[in-house]
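Continuing the series of single-chain predictions for the mutant panel. This is the parent chain; the variants come on the following pages.
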Amino acid sequence: MTSAAPVVPASAPLIATDDAGLVDDALRWCAAVGATPERAADLAAVRRAWRTSSAVLLGDDLVDDVARAALPRREHVVVLAREPSRRWADAVAIGATAVCAPHDEDAVVELLVRALDGSGEACVVAVVGGSGGAGASTVTAALGVEAARRGVRPLVVDADPWGGGLELVLGAEGSRGVRWDDFDTTQGRIDATSLVDVLPSHAGVQHLTWTRGSDRRVPDAWSEVVSAAVRGFDLVAVDVPRHLDVSGAEIVGRSVLTLVVVPEEIAAVSAARRVLAEVSTRAPSVGLVTVARRSGIGRGAVEEALGVRSLARVRPDHGVRSAVDQGRGPGRSRSLRRVAGAVLDAVGVEQR
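Parent structure:
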């Protein structure tokens, strides 16, 4: 992938003006973001499209009519005026986002992009293994599976170059779509709609991983990819390396919650203490997921040793490894479903 595909909005923007010059400007701006607009030259036509349009570019020739009609306030209304300073009071009255002149092309295009390219902010959960082989990839995959069950749009991301491969845990190695490697030459902004369209999906969970056999290098465009993912999905769960690199540190910093997965063993707790010390300087919120071990020290001892409360505990489930090895993923594990459910409840991802 060398460039972002055009935005494909759920509904078209509206150009609401009878001023030929403003219409020409607005058509050019819509073309710049890949959108085909509707047009309205009078108040009656504006009324019909006011609620359903993704954005409204309202010429100053119709501002007074719209104000008198008292149309319901809505987002993404931009007033186009040759003398913006004279229209600010009217723009405020109708709830417009901005007042722009014909020469303000960059500002209008940016406002259109925001309207067309997903207005939401995903809930970002970073998952870090407190020690080697702790099971961070499995927990990440389980979060995606449970989020899909709840009817939200999940993306799981493998950002750990040293991991075994999140697509293997999901049972999605054969899924078709772009991988990290495809962003090696990407430059500039990536729109969310295009990213959603091209990422592979398996059992309702979209995922971003590396191509098998690649050098598993995070591309320079990773920050733009993550930003587009945050705009395009409801939940983004990221498997982050224990020793935070630049990308891992930023993802942890952007997360609503960083989970540290810790086996209930003395050596694992010792390793997790160092991981927590690094993560805690960057993460807004940190929680533990403990992993039960036969003859282990127990959940309470892990919490006491690390001084962090655990949100959930992964109980022994011998069927998980077999299911992953056979390409079925972790979806059938009751233990992992309970863990993922507890985490999603904690960050407010509810059933839809």
